[in-house]
Fold:
Amino acid sequence: MIRVLLFGRLCDIAGWRETEVTPSPERLSDLKRRLAESWPDLALALGGAGVKVAIDRAVVHGDLPLPAGAEVAFMPPMSGG
Amino acid sequence: MIRVLLFGRLCDIAGWRETEVTPSPERLSDLKRRLAESWPDLALALGGAGVKVAIDRAVVHGDLPLPAGAEVAFMPPMSGG
Amino acid sequence: MITLTDQPFDPGEALNRFAAGRCESGAVASFLGLARGEAGQATALELEAWPEFTTSEIGRLVDEARRRFSLHDATVIHRTGRIAPGEPIVLVLTAAGHRREAFEACDFLMDYLKSRAPLWKKEFGPSGARWIEPTERDLADAERWRR
Amino acid sequence: MITLTDQPFDPGEALNRFAAGRCESGAVASFLGLARGEAGQATALELEAWPEFTTSEIGRLVDEARRRFSLHDATVIHRTGRIAPGEPIVLVLTAAGHRREAFEACDFLMDYLKSRAPLWKKEFGPSGARWIEPTERDLADAERWRR
Structure:
């Protein structure tokens, strides 16, 4: 099982903030493919400029393997202050 | 009569903060000469770097004539904050 | 110290607490960001955080600022949730021996918060809601600190 | 508004008063200068002003800052008289639409106050008193704004 978290406009697009994907996809690219099956608009947005990915709260780059039970967060462009 | 004001270290050097000079000196240079007669150390300090002069609360440069009853302030380098 | 709060906070009280007892920090700089009403076009902001992650990411940057600008101390308070026009969104406080370091650290932290901190900002108005993303200027400002 | 006061003032209260009701100023920058103890080498500062002249000269500069940085508002509170280590000496507050203008105006006003405002500062310590004059860095900082 992989836990998926969305933030900002990605929640609005998907209609949810958090979900679980079972069985566990092996890599980040597999997870994205699985999300695309149910939420094609989300999959499009995940490929957009400035979307960052964190696996278990560490920001990562590239198509990494997902540890079992990983938490994957997709974060659109950030803006505080 | 000319009113003379000193600030900062100039007060410490002269030993006063405010005095009157009578009869009125005609120009700023005349006033400085008159001050030098009684307070030679002050006169030296007045020629030091960064000492500004205000006549009637306007900062001036050069050897200006002094209006009757003028207030002349000598201000050493400023430092607030 | 990093504080995320979904309740209004008191910037003056925070400034006084931060400055109290500082006999060797000559300089305390601060930046207070307020929600703008945009002449009626913005009726509220909504700030979303991922609380522990957001706090730890801001904490890392505050640590970097402390080292980089030889700060004596730094604090960030950031609102989350729904914020009305005129309400404080963020307060950054920096203390240093001299003013240049305090100013630069405050500026650096704000540039970071505007474009790199895990926070998401939605503006509500009469014609609906929109997500606010960093402007070109925000991104250029953040680039100034690259090295 | 320019305030010279020979009594301790409350920076937090001043910040809150300044920020209250600002629905269109997104940015409030501040600088608070505190008297440094210099590890026991400074037991007090004494700040001398020429009250009306000092107030009007600072006022002129605040007006210049307002124009130059498109400020919505600016305030300076400056202590005079005897000041103990840790006590506030000066508070500069600037409000603008965006942070860059608020920061720069605050920086500009502090550079001016440090080297050009009619104020004279004496530091008392165990080995006597000395007049503090602007440092090379203060003078260089003030030159940045020439144009």
In short: The first helix of chain B runs from residue 9 to 14. DSSP finds three helices and five strands in chain B. The beta strands of chain B are 2-6, 18-21, 52-55, 58-60, 71-75. The mean pLDDT of chain B is 96.
